[in-house]
Amino acid sequence: MTAQDFILESYNSNIEKGKVKWSSPSNIALVKYWGKRQHQIPENPSISFTLSNCKTITEVTYTKKEDDGFSFDVIFEGEKNEAFKPKIQTFFERIETYMPFLKDYHFTIETSNTFPHSSGIASSASGMSALALCLMSIEEKLSVIQSPDGKRQDEESQDYFNKKASFLARLGSGSACRSIEGELVVWGQNESTESSNLYGIKFDGEVHPNFKNYQDTILLVDKGEKQVSSTVGHQLMHGHPFATERFKQAHHNLARLKAVFASGDLDSFVKIVESEALTLHAMMMTSMPYFILMKPKTLEIINKIWAYRESTDSHVCFTLDAGANVHVLYPENEKDSVLRFIKNELADYCQNKKYITDYVGKGAQLMKN
Ligand code: PMV
């Protein structure tokens, strides 16, 4: 599909008002997206586990209006929020071509997260995907005939809905396009899997039972403002001395992970995932300007995980986003032992001993208003 396929040609503008509500999860990348071209096109492919517990719930009320221009209010966790408005304004500007009804309505966007505010957990993936899904539900309600024969098969329409939701979410925040479906989602053109640069696609390869219900415990090491916004971070990959090699490596790691998912080889999984996390941070340490986004406690946790793995037959491993928090990943059958290890040995490194237990999920859900 091309971007052209997502332009809504005609719609029923007689609908006066309505309300839609979605819950959409966060995701954790195993092969990392870092570096992008214009229009949020990734420089390399990425793959992520969709999460279950860390999610955003968004309700959008739409009311017909006469004047021109975008009009919306944002209510975050029960209070009117001005800080989110510029990002949503930019998002609306980027997607207007595909959703020509945006200027016909006033939108009230009520949103909240299941994870603590300012926990340092990026809410852009769950937040932008939840908003994109609400807008898709509105589009569906306003839609007139959409396919040449006037009908669309259910499966085909679900596929279009998910792809366009992911396409829109990408324009809000790149990694958000991987939050629509579960359990593994690939984004970015590559030779190993079915893929697109425009939207995320459910991983089409075989997945060994070892990876079913994979666990992710998020250790909250640093709740502060991000030292480098992802916009700035992605830009630092332009002209980065190691960029070309890094992008090649991501293709290679995705191909290796595909084989690992089929075989269930957890040792190789650990190596690829940890190497990806460290490479992401290495890219930031070697850009100009350069940044260290880990904190001393991040390193202490990594060393503890390595020591634990050394002294047991565990397959626990870590991954990192562009910050200091640590995602601890492990198979479901190690849940009890690893949670004990986290409680006894890692919780002390977390702010207020806080961590969030999560696991792989199936994607976003439409909610009853
Ligand atoms: O979606 P963005 O632009 O905030 O980028 C996020 C990039 C990482 O989280 C660091 C990696 C990834 O693939 O999710």
Q: Enumerate the spans where pLDDT stays under 50 for 5 or more consecutive residues.
A: none
Order of helices and strands: EEEEEEHEHHEEEHHHHEEHEE
CATH topology term of the largest domain: Ribosomal Protein S5, domain 2
**SS class:** alpha+beta
Bulk shape? globular
Roughly what fraction of the amino acids lie in strands?
A: 15-25%
Query: What's the alpha carbon Rg, rounded to whole Å?
Result: 21 Å
End-to-end Cα distance: 32 Å
Q: What is the domain tally?
A: 2
What is the count of DSSP helices, taking H or I runs of 4+ residues?
8
**CATH domain class of the largest domain:** Alpha Beta
Would you kindly provide a written description of the structure presented here, covering whatever features stand out?
With 369 residues, the chain is of the alpha+beta class. The chain folds into two domains: 3-201, 2-Layer Sandwich (Ribosomal Protein S5, domain 2), CATH 3.30.230; 208-359, GHMP kinase, C-terminal domain (Alpha-Beta Plaits, 2-Layer Sandwich). The chain is built from eight helices and 14 strands. It has helices spanning 85-95, 124-142, 154-172, 230-235, 243-263, 266-285, 296-311, 335-346; strands at residues 17-31, 36-37, 41-42, 46-64, 71-76, 79-80, 105-113, 184-187, 201-202, 215-219, 317-320, 326-330, 355-359, 365-366. Strands 1, 4, 5, 6, 7, 8, 9 and 14 form an eight-stranded mixed β-sheet that branches. Helix 2 (124-142) crosses helix 3 and helix 5 (243-263) packs antiparallel against helix 6 (266-285). The protein is globular, with a radius of gyration of 21 Å. The mean pLDDT is 95. (3R)-3-hydroxy-3-methyl-5-(phosphonooxy)pentanoic acid is lined by residues 29, 32-34, 46, 124, 173-175, 230, 280, 321-322.
